[in-house]
Every structure is written in C-alpha cells, then in structure tokens.
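User: Write out your own:

AI:
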Amino acid sequence: MKKLIINTVKYLFFLAFGVFLLWLSFRKLDLREVWKAILSADYLWIVLAMISATLAHFFRALRWNVLINSMGYKTRVSTTFYAVFIGYMANTAVPRMGEFMRCGVLSRKEKIPFNALFGSVISERIFDMFVLLILLFSVLFFQWSFVGDFVQRMTLPFFSAISNNSLALIILTLVCLSMLGALIYVRQKYHHHIKEVPVYKKVMTMLLEFYDGIKTIKRMEQKWLFIFYTVFIWLFYALMIYFPFFMLPETSGLSFMACITFLAIGSLGIVAPVPGGIGAYHFIGKAVLVELYSIDPTAALSFVAITHAAQTLLHIFVGGLAYFIMFFVDHKKPVNEKD
C-alpha cells in the first residue's frame, strides 16, 4: 500500500510538471492562431511520419529478436512487433512502464523468462542511450558556433541550482556511499547465512537472469545485423521528424541537418520522466525551433503539438490493436513451449 501511494505521488508530480511545461509553452501565444495553424497543416506529411515511426518500431522488433535469439530463445517477428507497440502504448500513460509491459506480454505469449527479456531490453536501451549521446555530442561539436548560446541558456538554471546546493549534494553523496559500504560489509561478513534465506535465493536467480539478458549484446553472434537494424531505427526516427517539416510553410525550409539537431535535442523531452513526454517535448521542441531556427512561436508550437499528438495516437491505436490481435486473434502455440 505504501509503495502504491509513493508511486502515485511520483506519477502525479511528474504529470503536474509536464502540465506546467505545457503551460509555459502556450502561455504567451494566441491559442486561436495555434489552432488555425494546426487546422491548416498538410497532414499527408504526418501520415508519412507515422509510417516512418511504424517502420522504426518494426526494425526495433527485428533488433530485439537478435538479442532474444542470442539467449537461446525463439520468437516470431509478429509477436515481438506487437509487444514493442504495446510497450509504447503503456509508455504514453506511465513513463518506463513500456519496458515492463512489452517484456510481460512477450514472456506470456512465447514462454520466455521475463527477467531475461527485461535484461535484454535494458541492454538495448543502454545502447540506444549511447547512440543518442553520440548524436547529441556530434551536433554540439560540429555546430557549436550555431547551438552553443542556446545550450548555455538552457542549462544555466540547472548548473546554478547545483552550485547553490553543492553542500547538500556532497552530504547526500557521502550518505549513499556509506550505505553502499555498509551493505557490502554485511554481505561479506554474513554471506553464508544470507545465502540460506529463501528470498535471497529467489532474488539472486532473478538478478542472474537479468544479467544474462544484459550480456546479450556482448555475446551475440550477429553484431553487424544488430548495428544494421540500429541504423535503420534512427534513420526512420529522423524521417519521422523531417517529413512533418513540410506540413507548415514556416518549417518547410528546414534542412535534414535541422532534423538531426531537433532529433538529438528534442529526444531529451521524450526520455524525460513525464507521461508520454507531454510538456517536456513541447517545451524543448518549441525552444529548438524558435531559438535556433527563428521559427515563429505559433508555428513552432503547432509543429510540436501535431507531431506529439500523432505519435501518441499511433501508439494508443496500434498498441491497443496489437494487444487484441496478440491475445484474442493469434492462437498459435508458443514457440518455446515444451512438448
């Protein structure tokens, strides 16, 4: 009960924070003009963006299959694809819930241990974060004269907060290190007794399966295929942003390099711990278009609102359809089920 209350409070806090950022994005604009720009957009480009997003998720499913196969399990591309979309649908409601959800449905459908699947998902998320950091630092390195002032303005409040609370951060770090040291000491001194506790055995089994999933990238045989799929995932992510540039006159002149810059910086809004990236994506996306490319604020926010809404609707609709097909239409026998 206590954990449920803490999670609910945490969820409501981040939701309120997202709504606050959404308010900051809209507060100085004429909502009628924003709505007019949204209605006048050429939605053919949004259709192409949604197709690009679907292809990105398809290649993500193929890449996940490479990891799953490297653990000695089998799965159909269709069920992995459905699980990926179900995960994105869950993420629109609760941040990071999608990772648990897609592992849960695939584990149930194909009889693969949940912990192994979850470890593989963490592994690919770490790899994707590494790719995003490379993309972000590449944008900053090659375009610092262009984006440097913008980055400094956006990060100045954060670094000011750190410098103003440096003593509290040092104390918190020391407390965490002391707790970690105490845990290591207790485990080393009483490890023979701890190993006999049933809960410890169960937790260690889960952790070993989880670690087995994380190691999949290191030991998989098809590393180049994994990289190939990764390239296509991020290519279609870029096209998912580039195509909508043409739906509004104000953004139609932006280049593919502008798309890469928006992808690198705007993705920070998606990975923020707010439900569906609401508010954070709008705030950062609008700032990139207005501050870097001098796009009219009304058009910039219209662009961000349309693309965010389109992706959200895609994930909800296709994710819901995928769940229905996976458990009510597809009655094939699990490929890992023992006879």
